[in-house]
Amino acid sequence: MGFVFSFFEETKMTHLWGESEEHLMILPAKKEERELEIQVLINSNKLKLCQRSGKAPGVGLLHAPFALLPMSFPKVYWEQALELAPLFNELVHRVSLDGDFLQQTLARTKEVDPFTRRLLDIHSKMMELNKKEDIQLGLTRSDYMVDGATDKLLQVELNTISTSSNGLACGVSELHRNLIRHHERELGLDPASVVGNTAITQHAEALATAWAEYNNQSAVVLVVVQAEERNGRPVAVVYFRAGYSPADYPSEAEWRARLLIERSSSIKCPSIAHHLVGTKKIQQELAKEKVLERFLDNKSDIENVRKCFAGLWSLETDNIVNSAIESPELFVLKPQREGGGNNIYGDNLRETLIRLRKDGSNEIAAYILMQRIFPPTSPSYLVREGTFVRDNVVSEFGIFGAYLRNKDKVIINDQCGYLLRTKAASLNEGGVVAGYAFLNSIFLT
Ligand code: ADP
Ligand code: MG
Ligand code: MG
């Protein structure tokens, strides 16, 4: 995890697609800085562009996998997710203020999961210092799938750190609009029904507004990515585009840096508490009876939030573990990790549960069990590396959110565009960069 300082002169961000999610870098707005940055990335072998560039000399960029046409999506789900976005933003904030809740809920996980322990250690140091974060910035993404059996929109997870693909998501909806416009007669579709996406500008604006709120003209926005450290001006906002995975902390130096950032006065996106609210364990705890009531006051808000919760259980619930061993295809076993590719399914899930139970190990506290959602399937053309395949697909739909608060004043609490990812119905996991899913956009019906 290196630190790249980039000052947002305008509220503009340029993004670059690399080979894996790690390498999706947000680069400085200034042209010279951006070129330097790209050079650093290429030199550090982070982007293995040249090998893959093939027939495009001097460009070396590979398109991200995408679905050829947008997915038709009922308006009612779209509206439901939009309505939920500010509620989840507020919920993240309120849960983040309850340090004891975070520490207690994750206490058993902490014993068996060193990564979560390190995050909690920083968090408890801040509690000891009674550190107050006057200005809080959350850039979130709440992910959903439609459950085919019940027609309900169910939340897969709530992301509070490195909520990626906002730039790519905007690109793909523009691409779809253009395709439909060009082939309007053959397709008979209205390009205006492709939902436009403002994720990148709204998230950039939230970062810029946070910077303004910090109120120091000479301060910069620090974007934490995986590159070399340079330069040093006061930092108004720290945006973590890395730091969500144990691999981002190869030595003690990165943990010291994370602690240093947390102790500093800069606005963190996310703060350590916001980061922890995004863990699967907290998601599971919030789904328990009476827990939402601790954090939200309005009855109908609570009802609306709860409506989108899928079945979530800790592994201490014996009868659920039995059911999962009997019918593993109906469940997903999740550790406290981000970035895709970490969940356990099917026979693996069964074997893992049997092993954990036999060992009588505390390791069970590292996981949660979740009801597997089966979205309705439809045919789609999926394009990767310039060629397409036709497949039966399912989709996952994320709504970006932004939340900026200075003491009692909520400055931004908004939904900010969306991410639609489509994958073959036969697959378990779903990340675009993990190689499973394809970027897509929404065609409202
Ligand atoms: P991560 O933080 O690593 O993205 P997720 O909880 O989003 O973890 O899980 C990764 C992927 O696994 C999702 O994008 C989705 O494709 C699949 N998945 C997760 N939970 C479920 C579920 N309950 N039902 C069906 N698929 C799921
Ligand atoms: Mg996640
Ligand atoms: Mg996810």
UniProtKB/TrEMBL annotation:
Its cofactor is Mg(2+). Belongs to the eukaryotic GSH synthase family. GO terms for molecular function: ATP binding; glutathione binding; glutathione synthase activity; magnesium ion binding. SUPFAM superfamilies: Glutathione synthetase ATP-binding domain-like, PreATP-grasp domain. Binds 1 Mg(2+) ion per subunit. Mg(2+) binds at E157, N159, E338. This is Glutathione synthetase. Homodimer. Residues 218-277 form the Glutathione synthase substrate-binding domain. It catalyses: gamma-L-glutamyl-L-cysteine + glycine + ATP = glutathione + ADP + phosphate + H(+). Transmembrane segments: none annotated. It comes from the Eukaryota. Substrate binds at R141, R421. Its EC number is 6.3.2.3. Keywords: ATP-binding, Glutathione biosynthesis, Ligase, Magnesium, Metal-binding, Nucleotide-binding. Pathway: Sulfur metabolism; glutathione biosynthesis; glutathione from L-cysteine and L-glutamate: step 2/2. ATP binds at residues 157, 280, 334-343, 345, 370-373, 396, 423, 429. One of its GO terms (cellular component) is cytosol.
